[in-house]
Amino acid sequence: MDDTETVDMIHEDALPGHESQLEPKPDWHPIYPGSGRLKDKIALITGADSGIGRAVAALYAREGADIAILYLCEHDDAAKTKEIVEKEGRRALTIAGDVGDKAFCERAVAEMIDTFGRLDILVNNAGEQHPDEDITDISEEQLKRTFQTNIFGMFFMTQAARPHLKKGAAIVNCTSVTMYKGADILLDYSSTKGAITAFTRSLSESLVAKGIRVNAVAPGPIWTPLNPFGGQPPEKIPEFGKNTPMGRPGQPNEVAPSFLFLACEDSSYMSGQVLHPNGGTIVGS
After folding, report:
1. If 271 and its partner were Cys, which of 98, 142, 151, 213 is the partner (CB 3.0–4.6 Å)?
2. pTM of whole model > 0.85?
């Protein structure tokens, strides 16, 4: 990416940010033709308006799934994701609201069931992050908010979805490389990602005997609206992702295949596991 173009897009903590305003644009396009691996499945994806969530929605649709697109407030981005799904010949439903609100999660799942009739795949992807140089800079309000969205939201959404998940269903959660290697300016965010990994493993133990698989994906630095719109200090954006062994940030469409693999029958003998599309950083599993 061009460093000058990237710096021009910096906004002060305007999270979660609009992909429609981001330059250069993240690459969400599926890389390969579909092969029906999710034929006629129904997927609910949180944070599906942009970034990794959009790429997952696009790939799932190409593989045959109908998609419920959950997002916070970026209506233009959500409309674009809906258009992407529909161009793949699949149905799409957009639902705006805060996953940190238990009542919203219940309403969203109910609306999805009313529209599609069932739920086969739950992707807990929505998240937020706020950089702080020192732990004393993290306000109580920010700490609560980060946990409310990133881990409480997964609990609330999974609780709402659970009655509708039958044998053969899959849950895929989004954790992060920061859970494994740490991040000095993302203490609260990294802590939630550690909780998500533990949540994934424990939920797998709880549901695997019922035929419901639970896995996670731990992306490295991926070029999405999250970081340039306040998730990283502006001065760090030109170097974003360059500290990976591959020397660059990843694109959302380089992460989406991990979410596809864990949602389809290709991973039928996997549960409680984490995949690591992170640019070559070696971490413990």
Report:
1. 213
2. yes
